[in-house]
Amino acid sequence: MAKTGDKINRSILLESDEFTGIREALNEASDAYQQAGKTWDFWKPIRETPLGVFFDKSEGSMWEMRGNPNLPRIWHERYGIRVGDYASRGGNAVRETVSVPNTLSILKISDSIIEGAEPWSDWKQYSRVEEMDAPKVNVPKTRYTNQVGGAAADSINIFKEAGGKPPVIGGKMEPVQLDCSNTNNSFRGTIRVERNDVKDNNFLAVEQPLKNAGNLFYYLAGKRIIDQLNTDTATNTDTRANLDLATSIHSEFEALANVIRSIFPGTQRNTADTMFIHPADAYQAISKSTGASGSYLFLDKRILREDNDSDVVNNSGLAAALGLKNVWETPQQTSGTVTITKRDVAQVVGLREDLTIENYDMTVGGLYDSDLVMRFDVQEGDENGAYKITSF
Questions:
Q1: Other CB atoms closer than 10 Å to residue 287's CB: what's the count?
Q2: Which one of 39, 167, 207, 246 has the fewest CB atoms closer than 10 angstroms to its CB?
Q3: Which is it for the CA torsion 146, 132, 47, 365, positive or negative?
Q4: b (16+ CB within 10 A) / e for 177-216
Q5: pLDDT digits over 225-279, tens only?
Q6: Which CATH architecture fits 186-390?
Q7: CB 45 within 8 A of CB 81
Q8: CB 347, CB 380: distance < 8 Å
């Protein structure tokens, strides 16, 4: 098991030796559900079990880390998971789970941070994300027209054989440096949990700061990515008034269509696939798309939201109407600015360390002075992968 002061997150805990049995039991349950043709989320028991259920009912049990002896029965009856004494009774016995670690509640605490972060986890789809296996990493830019040897001409004849050595073909390997060394691009905040709430078994008061912390970090991570996109897109930009028709009927739609269908592709061999727009601007674009002509330009069954059960935050039906893969209607974007990108070309995000708890002493009682840490860098890829509309 991790020692006092070690870094803790959901994956680190689950992969530790102490949690071998729990990991095995959860995998057994997942396999059983899938064999029965049922969908199953590996984290479902952890997520759905309230924090208070991980502890016994005695006073101060949370502070003293006294686990709930009924948890194995609850999990067996509700999810069919074999932990504790139930591990050795029939079926596929999981021998390692005869004893349940009393630190299982810490896995729940770590998952609470992830639960709060999940509504804003879409930031990992905003741009090209690279996992950093070192503090500094160089990755190549993505741009299909950036060829060596002047081979960007639109004619295959430059490669026509005429004897001699053929011309060079391929992309230029221009690097983008991602830097998370030392304290560079490292972000840290202390999770404020009141000590007396832990002593008094005030479980909800402990869980909410964890969720709030995860939510804020992920929201701000996405905002940083979009803000950097807006800052870096300094050449490929114009106002909505300059992008719509001379005699405008539906100004917002005309400007968006001009960029997505005409200006953005230009001489680039790629098309836009992603757009960031503030909710107030999305409203204006939709509400004004009915005018004197009586038409409704953004007619789509998902105009108000996607017809799935994902979170409504950051989920837009405008993507289908505009021919894009993703339209993020989000307050992370600056009001009055719309940014349209080819996500893998415009920007590179290097993720060195996802949400991690540091200075955690492996008891719930020590949670009140623990730090939440993230390390990630954001760098421009190629500006031709983005276009910014201002004064929208």
A1: 10
A2: 246
A3: negative
A4: ebbbeeeebeeeeebebeeebbeebebeebbebbbebbbe
A5: 999 999 999 999 999 999 999 998 888 989 999 999 999 877 667 789 999 999 9
A6: 2-Layer Sandwich (3.30)
A7: yes
A8: yes
